[in-house]
Coiled coil domain-containing protein (Geotalea uraniireducens), 95 residues
Amino acid sequence: MSLQERCREELVAKLAAGERRLGQLGERAKAVPVERRSAFEKELDELQGRKSAVALKIEELRRAEGHSWEAIKGEIEAAVDEWGIAIEEAIARFR
């Protein structure tokens, strides 16, 4: 397995972990009082949108040829990490 493939697999694993946490957040939304639910759902929608953007970036990494993937690796890792942090912050806000 190439370094590029390993990197991509690590990022996909982080994406999957974030999706699980996002699912937990979605379950929590069901228990949120009605007056807070709109803000909660708006945040969930935003996080879902960011997830889609992150998934596209990971796909970009998969399609990159030669050493060009190294140029975008840091940007993609940062996007995945920032998305994960945003999820954890949302979970903390809606406890």
Q: What stands out?
A: The mean pLDDT is 91. The first helix runs from residue 3 to 29. The two ends are 41 Å apart (CA to CA).
